[in-house]
Amino acid sequence: MTETPLHGLRVLDTATLFAGPLAATLLGDFGAEVLKIEHPTKPDPSRGHGPSKDGIGLWWKVLGRNKRTLTLDLSKAGGRATFLRLAATADVVIENFRPGTLEKWDLGWPELSAVNPRLVLTRVTGFGQFGPYAHRPGFGTLAEAMSGFAAITGEPDAPPVLPPFGLADSIAGLATAYAVMTALAARERTGEGQVVDMALIEPILTVLGPQPTWYDQLGHVQERTGNRSANNAPRNTYRTADGTWVAVSTSAQSVAERVMHLVGRPELVDEPWFATGAQRAAHSDVLDAAVGSWIAARTRTDVLAAFEKAEAAIAPIQDVRDVMADPQYQALDTVTTVDDPELGPLRMQNVLFRLSSTPGAIRWAGRPHGADTDEILTELGLSKAELTALRAEGAL
After folding, report:
1. Span 216-241, pLDDT tens digits
2. Other CB atoms within 10 Å distance of the CB of residue 278
3. H/E element, 15
4. DSSP-derived 3-state class of residue 97
5. pTM of the model as a whole
């Protein structure tokens, strides 16, 4: 098998729910050795989030993939000493305790860098390591609210809308994996590790686009527009004759023109206001009526075929059942099958991207709590007597 791009990289994942663990998962997907460290009696809550089968949490099977699991109580003297021994062998530590918690256990950056100057300590919190909110409990929902995301999501005359999944956490997980790789690239030049400070409230603000610059320069505050866009039209969801939904986008002028010809309203293309996306957006009622009435008279199959023939941008509104059967996702193997000792064949999202020479892979799904504790610590050099003593202390 081709050597993976992150082969030889060791990551200690001590984080929970969900950004930090997701970053570790992404690193593990491309070959990093990830050791998932959980409290002996309080495992990562993701093991109990969402639906389960036979008492086994399915979310954990995805989030915990490609990780070996061990238990360790970092607040115990033996747990602290063992963690320092592990950190001495690692390249990356990912944690999401409240600021000051590692320091309370004498496991802050001074202690960790002393045993391993090349270590990258990655700290993921709601609000960052400093500032007036640093010590508040932080979750993705708060980041979605504070960042401006909820304020622009939903219909204009309806309440702000929060996403029904971990959006801010997922964005921060992607950003954290990037931050780790950036710090490791710097280490190649300097020979020294450093601290990564990732706040959940920041990556989601980045993906919201130029809102701060608009406000700074123009005093412009983006408002809720539902499925419409202030930058182009027609752009909306439309119901078909057979009761399904499709989404249409016309970010390119040429596509907008093709759509109007397709739906039998070519005269609208000649309107002076049709020349720019912003002006089209100001006439969304007219354009939505033209496109919506045409789509409403046809089945989804006919609508999709006609748009494809016209080279106009459209997609069906799909739920997970449609996603699993979608031929494009099938061609990409986006949802792949993993053999799991506990549940048998499992389908889950594949690795995030494809590399032509050194691809990633899902080697196994999330393992039971502490399943690899003895193996990992024996590899570290701990004797049976030391393991027994740690258990007696409650550190394992």
Report:
1. 999 999 999 999 999 999 999 999 99
2. 13
3. none
4. coil
5. 0.95
> What's the start-to-end Cα distance of the chain, in Å?
35
Task: State how far the Cα of 23 lies from the Cα of 352, in Å rounded to an integer.
Answer: 12
Helices (H) and strands (E) in the chain, counts: 17, 13
User: Identity (one letter) of the amino acid at 22?
Assistant: L
Q: Which runs of E-coded beta strand occur in 163-212?
A: 195-199
Active site residue 73: no
Beta bridge partners of 40: none
Q: What pLDDT does 2 receive?
A: 67
Beta strands 52-53; 56-57: pairing state: antiparallel
Would strands 67-71 and 33-38 be described as parallel, antiparallel, or unpaired? parallel
Which value, in Å, is the radius of gyration of the alpha carbons in the chain? 25
pLDDT bucket at 80, cuts 50 / 70 / 90 = very high
Bond prior to 18 in cis (omega within 30° of 0): yes
**Which of the 8 DSSP states describes residue 4?**
P
| Phi–psi pair at 57, nearest 5 degrees | -65, 130
- Going by C-alpha positions, the residue among 329, 326, 295 that lies closest to residue 312 is 295
Among 29, 73, 91, 169, which one carries the catalytic annotation?
169
> Which two tokens mark 127?
């609000």
The amino acid sitting at 147 is S
Nearest Cα neighbor of 18 from 42, 58, 46 is 46
Q: Is the separation of the CB atoms in 314 and 307 below 8 Å? A: yes
Q: 3-state DSSP call for residue 119?
A: coil
Query: What is the Cα–Cα distance from 40 to 266, expressed in whole angstroms?
Result: 67
SS3 at position 140: helix
- β-pair partners for 10: 33
| Torsion of Cα atoms, 107 then 113 then 119 then 125, to 10° | 40
* CA–CA gap between residue 180 and residue 51 (Å, rounded): 31
Name residue 148's amino acid. G
